[in-house]
Amino acid sequence: MMIALFLPLAIGPWQIVLVVLVVLLLFGGRKIPELMRGLGSGIKEFKDASKDENEESTHVEDKK
């Protein structure tokens, strides 16, 4: 019964193709590399910040 609730949320190949086409139409081919570069740098900054936070919390726990 619960599976039927989540079935419409499953992402298939046609949904991915549709999303890619919509992104191409909205941003054009020249803007996409710039958008992906910005997304990649944002993810890298997030990972670095979370790693720094883990290191700081480990040092605080060690001092206790």
Overview of this structure, please?
- By secondary structure, this protein is mainly α.
- It has a domain at 31-64.
- Helix content is 88%, strand content 0%.
- It has helices at 2-6, 13-63.
- The longest helix has 51 residues, at 13-63.
- The termini are far apart.
Gyration radius, in Å: 20 Å
Q: Helix tally? A: 2
Total beta strand runs: 0
Helicity level, as a percent range? Answer: over 70%
What's the N-to-C terminus distance?
A: 49 Å
Index terms:
mainly alpha, 0% strand, flat
Question: TL;DR?
Answer:
This protein has 64 residues and is mainly alpha-helical.
Present the secondary structure layout.
Elements: H1 2-6, H2 13-63
